[in-house]
Amino acid sequence: MTKIKGGGLKAVLKDTKPYFFMMKSDGYERLRLLEVRDDSIVIATPKGAPMRKTMLGIIAFSDGSGVFEVDGSVEAEEGAATGSIRLMLDSTKLKKLERRAYPRVSFAPPLEASATIEGKTVRIPARIVNLSASGLRVETHDALPPDRLIKFRFDVDLEDEVHELDLEGRIVYEIPLEGGHSYGVKFGRTGSDTTVSDDEEFVSDSERTADLINLVNRLLIRE
Fold first, then answer.
1. What is the pTM of this model?
2. Which domains does the chain have, with CATH numbers?
3. What is the pLDDT of residue 2?
């Protein structure tokens, strides 16, 4: 995680998509980012939430390679009547978190899971060794193809809650094991950091990233 040095807020956020993911106790709420100013951003008012003095959240890079962690103070906005609020930000205090730096939680013993190869219906038994917002490490007895999208399903228990995860990605490396395979998986349909042109796919990917950051952080705190 790094802090941004120099440059105004508009310059820092010029390569991000127009969404602000506000942190809540149970996850994130996606809000439209309406405008970026020199000292603040204007966002849609949260639904059914009382006005806060401060807000925590994330803004994702346009290419999906990471996020900015945002901590700002809420001020009255002339457009509040139309459903918007202003969040004051200091560009030098924004924290840049790239995919490779996402917090990662390990599971001991590994979590039981299933893997389904794109275009097939057979579920392959698997074990999730660790998890981050950008990917996971999985072990299987059967080989998984590196050129196909693979969906992983597994449950995570946290504070008397069961989180049912349904995640898809592609293999980026393999480590042979005695009697099996260990794979590194990167989430996303493309398996690369190319710019996402489809807005709906980007929003879905960003929401998944926000939810996983929140879940992994809660798991790490529990440890």
1. 0.70
2. 2-99 (2.30.110.10), 102-222 (2.40.10.220)
3. 47
